[in-house]
Write a structure and sequence with these properties.
Helix content: 25-40%
Radius of gyration: 16 Å
Largest sheet: 7 strands, mixed
Length: 198
C-alpha cells in the first residue's frame, strides 16, 4: 500500500513540475535513522516521501488525524503513527525508538509547524536519535506548499545534508545538545544552498 500510494503521488505531483533532488547519496545510511526536514506546507511531506523512494518513511503525525476509521486506516497504511502534540510525554518516543531499533526511517519536521521562517527547532528528532543511538539526516525543501503553488507550477527542490551522528565521547545529554546545534546549523545551511541553486 505504501509503495502504491507513493508512486501514484509521484506521478500526480510530477504533472505540476518535476522535483530536483540534490545529494541523495547522503541517504545511503546503514540501519535506521531519523530524517529531519524543513516544513512549510503539506506538499513537502509528499515530496519527501517520493524523493526517498525506494526507501520508506514512517511519519509522526498528530493524533487528530487518527480519529475517523477511514483516516486511521489510511494513515496506518502510509506508515504514520499518532502523537499527542499538546502532551507528548515519554510514550511519544516509544514507537519511533522501536522503529529505529528495527532499522526503519522515522520522518520528523522539527520546526513543529508549517512556516517559511526559521524558527527554534523542537527537540523530538534529537531525542529519538539520541536514545536510539541512530544518526539524523537533515533535509531542506523549497517549492510548492499548497494547491495554489502547485497550479502556479512553483518548482520543487530538495537537498539531503550529511548525516549527524551522536558524539561517542560525550554523555547522552551533552551529546544531544551537540546534535541539536549541528542540526540547526545544517538545516540553515541547506536552505541557503537551495536558495542559491537554479
Amino acid at each position: 500500500m505504501y509503495y502504491f500510494c507513493t508512486y501514484v503521488l509521484k506521478i500526480i505531483l510530477s504533472l505540476f513540475g518535476r522535483i530536483k533532488i540534490y545529494q541523495k547519496e547522503n541517504t545511503e545510511i546503514s540501519g535506521g535513522f531519523v530524517i529531519a526536514c524543513t516544513h512549510s506546507g503539506w506538499v513537502d511531506i509528499l515530496w519527501l516521501g517520493v524523493s526517498m523512494l525506494p526507501k520508506q518513511i514512517h511519519y509522526m503525525a498528530k493524533k487528530e488525524l487518527f480519529q475517523s476509521t477511514f483516516l486511521k486506516w489510511l494513515m496506518e497504511q502510509l506508515h504514520a503513527f499518532p502523537v499527542d502534540r499538546e502532551n507528548p510525554g515519554p510514550s511519544a518516543i516509544k514507537t519511533p525508538r522501536k522503529l529505529l531499533k528495527n532499522g526503519e526511517i522515522v520522518g520528523v519536521f522539527p520546526s513543529g509547524t508549517r512556516t517559511s521562517e526559521e524558527v527554534p527547532l523542537k527537540r523530538g528528532a534529537v531525542t529519538m536519535a539520541g536514545y536510539a543511538k541512530t544518526p539524523i539526516l537533515p533535509v531542506a525543501y523549497q517549492g510548492p506548499n499548497n494547491f495554489t503553488d502547485l497550479f502556479k507550477r512553483v518548482k520543487p527542490k530538495i537537498i539531503f545534508g550529511q548525516p549527524i551522528y551522536m558524539p561517542e565521547n560525550l554523555p547522552l545529554k551533552q551529546g544531544m545538545e551537540v546534535m541539536m546545534e549541528q542540526l540547526e546549523k545544517s538545516l540553515h545551511d541547506l536552505q541557503t544552498q537551495l536558495r542559491e541553486m537554479e
